Amino acid sequence: MERVDENGRGVMEPANFPDMGSRRALRDINNLVGAAAPCAYASRKRGTPDKGSVDDQNPTSVARRPMTRKFAAQSERKSQAYQQGTKEQHEQVRNEIHYNPPLPSTVSIEMEEQVDNSDLKEIEMAIETAPDIDSCDSNNPLAVVEYVQDIYSFYRQTEVTSCVSPDYMSHQFDINEQMRAILVDWLIEVHYKFELMEETLFLTVNIIDRFLARMTVARKKLQLVGVTAMLLACKYEELSVPMVEDFALITDRAYTREEILEMERLIINTLQFNMSVPTPYVFMRRFLKAAESDEKLELVTFFIVELCLVEYKMLKFRPSLLAAAAIYTAQCSLRGFKCWTKTSELHATYSEEQLLECSRLMVQFHHKAGQGKLTVVHRKYSSHRYGYAALSEPALFLLETGH
């Protein structure tokens, strides 16, 4: 009768043999703990006499091993495996057994240890894992260290859903890139006055771009799209959401409450209610942690990336790349030389070379931040509240060729 063991494989139940009289005890087939290692048996077909093992008490005698179904099946499998081997392999094994003298045990052990150690070194060099940056938060339930790797792996897989075509403005008939820049610059000021969370600003700009990439908008409705996008972002991110009347008031009552609510319905239906998209903010938090940032580095990084929100040309970069390049540019700005640690590279999965194109554009934005008409970001980060981050020197050496 067959039964199934704990590993799920079929195993034959032992047969009920009648009294065998002088049958040898089971201890003679080395089934007890501490028994001598079993001798090798020659492969044989079922039903043929087995050669057995040498008897401990009489070396010239042979102990007969009983032929059970399980043992016969095992022997048959060994026989088939042996027959499948090539002739050259058999000759090699035979030569090693008969002609190669065995090395002393101590020498063999030393050689095996050397081989094992070299293999381990090769494995360690081949597999490069990111250092653990979450051990300090192991007791913080809000850090969700058990799931943080899965969360950011999911962000990486889905960040493409938050991206838009970098030339979507070509499909707009009444607005252009400069109008978008004016709108975003103004919304950064509104965000500052309402004292909203940083996540809200990034989601606001993302909603605007995704909506404009799908829907043509008249010039007189562009500001309405902007304030409505911020209202939606507030509902998604904020604990205390400003009233609809507050957004109507901030536009100097250019739009009514009903118009804002109507635009809200249009936006959420156009975006199919998808507000859960990874923005550069979520990646910056992770990459800043990998960079072991301080408050100064964090403020300069946010200053640089907010400058990028205004620039339409930066839509060609993925959120994770934008975040990594902002941190790299901020480090170069504060330290005066190129700085991108191995830990940052492993967690961001971007090398320094991959960041240079985006970083050089950021240096240009940093250099001209206080010039022109769109200076809200520069004024915001020139205050004591934001650590005078805008006054840091731009990393102009990154623009030089050959560096």
CATH class of the domain at 145-270 reads Mainly Alpha
Sheet with the most strands: spatial strand order: 1-2
* Number of helical stretches of at least 4 residues: 15
Molecular shape: globular
CATH evolutionary superfamily of the domain at 145-270: Cyclin-like
Q: List unreliable stretches of 5+ residues.
A: 1-64, 96-113, 122-127
Beta strands, count = 4
Task: Give the arrangement of secondary structure elements.
Elements: E1 2-4, E2 10-12, E3 53-54, E4 62-63, H1 69-84, H2 87-98, H3 105-126, H4 148-158, H5 177-194, H6 198-212, H7 222-237, H8 244-250, H9 257-270, H10 280-290, H11 295-310, H12 319-335, H13 342-348, H14 352-367, H15 376-380
Antiparallel strand pairs: 1-2, 3-4
Helix pairs in contact: 5-7, 6-7, 7-9, 10-12, 10-13, 11-12, 11-14, 12-14
